[in-house]
Backbone:
């Protein structure tokens, strides 16, 4: 039982991270109309910046580290959108290709700033609690709290603020938003920058407990993408459910089957999600015709 | 109050759609802008609102030049648009649709609330449906929200692009009555419409565009519009016109 609860605790932490990065996916998709394939590198740069700030500059205040690392990721996000992506608005495929280029550039940046080994920035608060024998590090509580605060904050932002409502309007009907005089390009810059900051924040809070390698961002991004895609890309409410589903599949497969299979199961799930998107977008059925033919009941004779 | 359009040339990149378009509309007039598909009717409205930049020409509202101004300045000067397909945000509530439009028009503080109240007074159905998502409304109710949204800034010129689209005849008649009322209140109302015959009943003027040029500009009173000629304009090519 303790093992199950301890695994569940890890699932919650992983879900929190997938949720934070997944909300970043949704922000860009909803407002800009394309996918930010560089989000995994923005994630890892959060950890790399934190580690660099601590080891090179000697700054160990958690607040300063968060502030500086998020600002760094935010500046990179802002420049990426403003310089490279702004003029591609309305050309989703071109923008998607450019985000691949940004991904590669940021990967090189992360590689040049960090060692080849796993980096582990300082924990914000050392120690933890053990209710019922289940160990929960304070840092993990910070991860949970961050995900909860960001999720609630984003729901409040989109539901209760004029800027949030305007961003939803852009998602709904971009040409109409432009016709009203809404500065859609500016909103795209805000969304892209915010998604970079969100991803960096996720790595900032979780890296002290789990560590991060400079090349591990894409896997996190894929899992987060799967989390937001299961219910429907762009739906923040669905992202919460998806994040827990992906994290649970990963955590319990590792606990009760084989740790080596955890990523494989998640990636197979990812392929299924991609297949569903491909079929749905072409108006087809999820089950191929030859399988439907096999399982089809024979027509009653004489009918 | 008058809207004076003089020698407008506009289009999309190298594709010139409007060629030397000129006419003017006075306060209290309802003008029907007719013409076949591709004649440039919607392009003219987009040019007036500022979503398309004119190559040359002038559009003056009470002597003040509109072309070259950002969209929010044009709405502040008194232009309101009900776009083709209504241009609403389906997953937002009625109130949120109005609020977003009010903020886009730079209405701050109480001005935004006053604008929303104005829209609700013009169309009581808007107040009844404030908390309802737009996608759950009927076509007629959505059109009321779209027109109400255009009234947020208390515009003196209301431009409506294909307002009959998707509406039952009875509802379309109600929309036309609303347009007539807006004109009778002293506004300039320009209606781009394919269902011309019904629109002419409510209109004062009729301008026909064909291949980006004005081919008719005159009264819309019964008997003054040569209906066979108008019908021909929908099918004629430039060579035969």
Residues:
């Amino acid at each position: 039982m303790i093992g199950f609860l301890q695994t569940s605790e890890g699932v919650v932490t992983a879900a929190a991270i997938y949720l934070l990065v997944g909300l970043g996916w949704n922000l860009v998709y909803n407002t800009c109309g394309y996918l930010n394939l560089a989000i995994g590198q923005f994630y890892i740069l959060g950890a790399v910046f934190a580690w660099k700030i601590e080891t090179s500059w000697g700054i160990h205040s958690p607040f300063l580290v968060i502030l500086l690392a998020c600002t760094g990721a935010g500046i990179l996000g802002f420049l990426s959108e403003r310089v490279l992506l702004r003029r591609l608005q309305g050309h989703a495929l071109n923008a998607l290709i450019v985000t691949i280029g940004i991904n590669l550039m940021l990967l090189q940046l992360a590689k040049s700033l960090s060692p080849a080994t796993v980096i582990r920035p300082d924990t914000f608060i050392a120690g933890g609690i053990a209710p019922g024998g289940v160990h929960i590090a304070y840092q993990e509580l910070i991860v949970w709290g961050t995900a909860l605060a960001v999720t609630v904050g984003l729901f409040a932002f989109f539901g209760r603020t004029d800027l949030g409502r305007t961003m939803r309007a852009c998602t709904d009907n971009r040409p109409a938003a432009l016709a009203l005089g809404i500065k859609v390009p500016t909103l795209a810059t805000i969304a892209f920058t915010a998604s970079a900051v969100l991803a960096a924040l996720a790595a900032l809070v979780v890296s002290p407990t789990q560590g991060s390698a400079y090349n591990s961002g894409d896997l996190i991004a894929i899992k987060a993408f799967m989390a937001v895609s299961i219910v429907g890309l762009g739906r923040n409410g669905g992202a919460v459910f998806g994040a827990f589903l992906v994290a649970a599949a990963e955590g319990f497969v590792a606990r009760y089957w084989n740790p080596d299979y955890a990523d494989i199961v998640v990636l197979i799930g990812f392929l299924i999600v991609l297949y569903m998107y491909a079929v749905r977008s072409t108006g087809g059925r999820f089950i191929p015709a030859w399988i439907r033919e096999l399982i089809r009941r024979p027509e009653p004779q004489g009918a | 109050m008058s809207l004076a359009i003089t020698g407008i040339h506009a289009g999309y990149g190298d594709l010139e759609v409007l060629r030397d378009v000129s006419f003017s509309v006075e306060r209290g007039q309802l003008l029907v802008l007719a013409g076949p598909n591709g004649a440039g009717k919607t392009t003219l409205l987009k040019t007036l609102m500022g979503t398309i930049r004119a190559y040359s020409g002038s559009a003056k509202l009470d002597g003040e030049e509109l072309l070259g101004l950002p969209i929010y300045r044009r709405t502040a000067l008194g232009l309101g648009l009900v776009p083709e397909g209504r241009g609403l945000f389906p997953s937002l509530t009625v109130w949120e649709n109005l609020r977003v439009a009010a903020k886009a028009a730079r209405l701050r503080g109480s001005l935004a609330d006053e604008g929303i109240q104005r829209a609700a007074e013009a169309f009581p159905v808007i107040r009844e449906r404030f908390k309802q998502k737009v996608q759950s409304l009927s076509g007629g109710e959505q059109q009321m929200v779209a027109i109400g949204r255009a009234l947020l800034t208390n515009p003196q010129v209301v431009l409506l692009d294909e307002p009959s689209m998707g509406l039952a005849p009875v509802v379309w008649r109600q929309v036309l009555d609303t347009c007539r009322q807006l004109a009778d209140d002293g506004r300039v109302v320009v209606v781009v419409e394919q269902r011309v015959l019904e629109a002419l009943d409510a209109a004062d003027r009729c301008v026909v565009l064909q291949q980006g040029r004005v081919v008719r500009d005159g009264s819309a009173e019964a008997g003054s519009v040569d209906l066979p000629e108008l019908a021909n304009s929908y099918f004629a090519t430039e060579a035969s016109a």
About this structure: The longest strand of chain B covers residues 15-26. The two ends of chain B are 34 Å apart (CA to CA). Chain B has a mean pLDDT of 86. DSSP finds nine helices and ten strands in chain B.
